[in-house]
Amino acid sequence: MTSVDDMRVTSVNVGREETIDHGNRRFTTGIRKRGADGPVYVGSDVVAGDTICDTKHHGGADQVVYAYSLDDYEWWSTQLGKEIAPGTFGDNLTIEGLPTDMNVGDRLLIGDILLEATAPRIPCSTLAAQMQDPGFGMAFRKAERPGIYFRVLNEGEVSAGDAVTYIENPAPVVSILDLYRLAYDLRPDPADLERYLEAPLAERMRASIEEKLSAARRV
Asked: Residue 51: which residues within 8 A CB-CB, separation 6 or more?
């Protein structure tokens, strides 16, 4: 596995609106992302050329970029017995050496672009439809390789092959995998929830934790 000292962008992926049929449901989605031929501009609220259909759960200023590790794709390819290409899970950036886990507030510097980790990706029915496997959401959950959402602190262009510098949060509060596990925790510790709220979370994640904290306090 590549170390964080030798991280590199493998692929920059964008998707257009498509329809996916799965079972008796039809999904309109931009999850099917394909590698761009040249540089892609990453702005404070958008990845140029990319489409987000479900704006309730995806996109926004705190989840502009979704990144997935090439190493985790290779793991999935082994598990599933077929090649899983970059962009399959809806990632904008596929990065060689990207850790499965990071702390919220850790940053990636790619040329002029500065990204800050904000939340894990929580699997949904659209991912199962993309994989044409009704059980894939559970498999994804158990694998604990969710990929990471980032906010954009500085805009710029990114291309396949660009080097990535990993900058650790000097005052970490909560990790991406802690938040991922929290999504499925039916009895979270209120003290943990209060602490997690001190991190620079994505707003959707913050709202979810605040709801869990309110519910825990009522028990």
From this structure: 14, 15, 16, 17, 30
Element (H, E) at 107: strand 107-110
Using a pLDDT cut of 70, give the percent of the chain over it.
98
Domain membership flag for residue 218? no
163, part of any domain = yes
Range of the domain at 92: 4-184
How far apart, in whole angstroms, are the C-alpha atoms of residue 121 and residue 85? 18
Q: Kindly report, residue by residue over 98-128, the tens digit of the pLDDT.
A: 999 999 999 999 999 999 999 999 998 899 9
Domain assignment of residue 189, yes or no: no
Question: Quick one: which H or E segment has residue 164?
Answer: strand 163-167
pLDDT mean over 23-42: 92
Is 208 within the bounds of a domain?
Answer: no
Residue bearing tokens 């017995």? 81
Q: Give the domain CATH number at 144.
A: 2.40.33.20
Does position 166 have pLDDT exceeding 90, yes or no? yes
Q: Give the DSSP letter of residue 123.
A: P
Residues 152 and 177: their CA atoms lie apart, in Å, by 21
Q: What's the confidence (pLDDT) of residue 204?
A: 95
Kind and range of the H or E run holding 18: strand 18-22
Q: Does residue 2 register a pLDDT over 60?
A: no
* Count of residues making up the chain: 219
Q: Mean pLDDT score of the chain, rounded to an integer?
A: 94
Inter-residue contact 162 to 111 (CB < 8 Å) = yes
Q: How many domains does the chain have?
A: 1
Residue 179 in contact with residue 119, Cβ under 8 Å?
yes
